[in-house]
Design goal:
This protein has nine helices and six strands.
Length: 255
């Protein structure tokens, strides 16, 4: 089944020879159930999402699992009111449609995993399972849209840094790493014995720094930086959560 506005069913050339009339009926019901459920629109939206976040392997996995779930849900919608014999006929159509050919992603009726056969034989509609699954999805959605992830991040930082003390470094910046989840500086600062020690200085995300007018050129390599922050709970890590940075030109950034 393909076509967002005018849906069309594409069938194997030997469709009428390979399948009985009853099996042909089940296959067509399956495909038109996809249309009734709006699965084609969902797939277009999913592929659009994948095109935006193509660099994230989890997105490709999520789209693949979405396709599988659509097939399972469509199977369930078709056979939910069927007898055992009718389920058998439907499953037989799946078996006969199996082939070693690699097919486009939308032609998924003939892509058969054993989970589909197990569900055909054992799955029954469960209002409780539907309610629990919907509730979990809603909770995950609400969690992702609130400040809870930020709170988790703060709690994580609290378990790494000592917020009861501060350390000041007269540092030389060697490298600035601007990454999606935060910015880190690699600096050299003299220790009490006068020897240079490498430190990792953690800053907020790139977007937060951007709001304060801080860009990648704001931490150009060189000496003259004064960095104050909370040290790591493990002194051997030589890691600092920056709360104030004075740059060589005298400008100051404060968290």
């Amino acid at each position: 089944m393909t076509g967002l506005f005018t849906a069309k069913v594409f069938l194997p050339a030997d469709f009428s020879e390979r399948f009985s009339e009853q099996e042909q009926r089940w296959i067509l019901i399956h495909e038109f159930t996809h249309v009734r459920r709006g699965d084609l629109l969902v797939r277009v939206l999913a592929e659009g999402f994948r095109s935006l976040f193509w660099f994230n392997p989890l997105v490709h996995l999520a789209v693949h699992l979405l396709h599988e779930d659509q097939e399972y849900a469509c199977d369930q919608a078709v056979v939910s009111g069927c007898t055992g014999q009718e389920r058998y006929q439907y499953g037989r159509a799946l078996m006969l449609g199996a082939s070693p050919q690699r097919l486009p992603s939308f032609l998924t009726f003939f892509g058969n995993g054993k989970e589909r056969y197990v569900m055909l034989g054992k799955h029954r509609r469960s209002a409780l399972s539907t309610l629990i699954g919907t509730g979990v999805c809603v909770l995950i959605g609400v969690y992702s849209l609130t400040s809870a992830p930020h709170s988790v991040a703060q709690n994580t930082a609290a378990s790494v840094y000592d917020f009861s003390s501060t350390t000041q470094l007269e540092a030389e910046v060697h490298q600035a790493r601007f990454e999606p989840d935060g910015v880190t500086l690699v600096v050299l600062a003299p220790n009490p014995s006068g020897k240079w020690q490498e430190w990792t200085v953690e800053l907020p995300t790139r977007s937060e720094l951007g709001e304060a007018g801080i860009t990648i050129v704001s931490f150009a390599p060189g000496r003259g930086y004064v960095i104050t922050g909370n040290p790591s709970l493990d002194p051997k890590e030589h890691r600092l959560l920056a709360v104030r940075i004075t740059r060589p030109d005298g400008s100051v950034w404060v968290r």
